[in-house]
Amino acid sequence: MGVREDERNQQLMAAWLGSLGAVITGRRNYDDAVPWWGADGPTGPARRPVFVVTHEAPKESPEGGVYTFVTDGLESALEQARAVAQDKDVTVMGGANIGRQYIAAGLVDEISIHLVPVLFHSGTRMFENLSSEHIELEPVEVIETPSATHLRYRVVK
Questions:
Q1: What is the C-alpha to C-alpha distance for residues 102 and 26, in angstroms, rounded to an integer?
Q2: 1 has a pLDDT exceeding 60
Q3: Which among 51, 93, 58 is positioned nearest to 72, based on CA atoms?
Q4: pLDDT for res 2
Q5: CATH of 3-155, one of 3.40.430.10, 3.40.630.30, 1.20.1560.10, 3.40.50.1010
């Protein structure tokens, strides 16, 4: 069963989108995905703002797009995302590198993993070389659908 045919998965994604105020991603994920996302970004017609952490903004970006390129660091991207999200959630998505940086900096409250039943040839390990200390997680939720197993953990501070 494909993701589009998985009604339960679609319902979950719609609910999560409803609580989402802004997205943070890295430049590599942006470069790889923008041909599919287009001007609307990863949230499609919902058009949630996307903050792309990068050393240098691209010369071109989709006209009328939801993208803001942040060249002054993780904390700045988080501040900007929180400001536009107001009381809604901010998510860091796509790219193990950017996720790992936010976790290592202690800027993550929860970790959601959407485990899909596909093994890729290669990739970057999400939790490799995070820090010299353990990061304790508290399980919050596990939801299984035919398209994915959704795992959510709270970071114990």
A1: 11
A2: no
A3: 51
A4: 53
A5: 3.40.430.10
